[in-house]
Amino acid sequence: MSKITDMTKTHNWSGQKLVSIDHMLFEAPRTKHFMTGSEVLKEAVKRATVDASVSYPITPQSEAAHLIGELWAEGYVGVYFRGENEFGVMSEVAGCSMAGARTITTTSGPGTLRAMENFAQWSGTRAPMQLVLMARGINSPLTIQPDNLEVQYLLETGCMIWYAENVQELFDMSLAAFTVAEQPDVHVPIITAVDGFFVSHTREAVELPDDDIALQPYDPYAAPLPPIDSEMPPGRFLRDPFVMKSNYISYATHASWQWEIRSAVERSKRYARHLLNGLVHITGNEDAEIAFVTCGTASNQAKEGQRELEKLGIKSKVIKLRTIRPFPEEELIEALEGVKYVFVPEFNVVGWLANEVKAKLYGKVDVNIHAGPRVAGGMSLPAEAIIQEVMEVVNPGKGA
């Protein structure tokens, strides 16, 4: 395998030509392939000049972790190893990123919860690693079926959270995520989420650039915090007595840092708008009075519902959120102009996205927000269920 010392100004250690993210996403010619989400994540990492990846198997992300390991064997990833458990993996990933490596890992469901303490530590140390989350159920009795309840647990960790609807979006987002997370005025971790099985194991047509190009390497010395250094954060933030003691200076330090992390997430918007072609995507009838606010696979189901409603002569539109953190509040408010009814279909039992939408829109728009329809534990969300819920809310007592 090639060594990282083989890096030049024009080519990385695997011999790929180094290009900008704009060239990779918008300019490079693409060819059509037929791949699962796990396979396409391998293709994204192959083109990302990744320095390090740490993995641990859990359904449904095990295949993705395995395929990234193959990239290491093929010379496309600098360092790869398996952790002892999910908590260990996320700790080791933090160490790699804090040392100045472009780092990626994956997890799912219970693995997310076992590693939970680390995610706030990631953002607290302003380390820009990427987690590809292939969401699955976490409830008891144990399930491996599609469900995204775990995303609620990640909302306030200080990490950016993007949500891909399909295999194509997973490829593009995974590459864009490194670039945005590594911006000096952002420099926080990023979680690229997909719904497990629906995306990880579904084979779809996807357009990919040739694999002889790759992203420019990460430059940790251009970051707001240098790589691990005993005299500068994150080194001092992890050990300094003045931070650890109970006094005013300690409180002020922690308070200001918490706000700064969240400000950094907000500053990511301008980069994400460009690389994701907007923070929200809208399909359907522009002048509709019924709107679905969605993310992930629920977007696809809502689009099917929208098409069926149109056959019934009922106008509706789907407002797909590409990012959850930062939350695209301004774009959502603009997209809801003229809307009277909002439905938030979800694959979880608690309706965390509906709660987010209600909190962000409270007092700002005059619209009826309905938390549903939603399913959990691996249940499907057919268009018929969406239409029935719409009819029961818009035409109470008349049903579908």
Automatic annotation (TrEMBL):
Instruction: Kindly indicate where the leader peptide sits in this chain.
Output: none
Keywords attached to this Swiss-Prot or TrEMBL record, sorted alphabetically, are: Oxidoreductase
Judging by the UniProt lineage, the source's domain of life is: Bacteria
Q: Which Pfam families does this UniProt record tie to the protein? A: PFOR_II, POR_N
Start and end of every Pyruvate:ferredoxin oxidoreductase core domain? 288-372
Would I find Nucleus among this entry's keywords?
no
Instruction: Enumerate the InterPro entries for this protein.
Output: PFOR_II (IPR033412), Pyruvate:ferred/Flavod_OxRd (IPR050722), Pyrv_Fd/Flavodoxin_OxRdtase_N (IPR002880), THDP-binding (IPR029061), Transketo_C/PFOR_II (IPR009014)
Q: Does the keyword Oxidoreductase apply?
A: yes
Tell me which residues make up the Pyruvate flavodoxin/ferredoxin oxidoreductase pyrimidine binding domain. 43-262
PANTHER family per record: PYRUVATE-FLAVODOXIN OXIDOREDUCTASE-RELATED (PTHR32154:SF0)
Q: What is this protein called?
A: Ferredoxin oxidoreductase
Q: Which organism is it from?
A: Sulfurovum xiamenensis
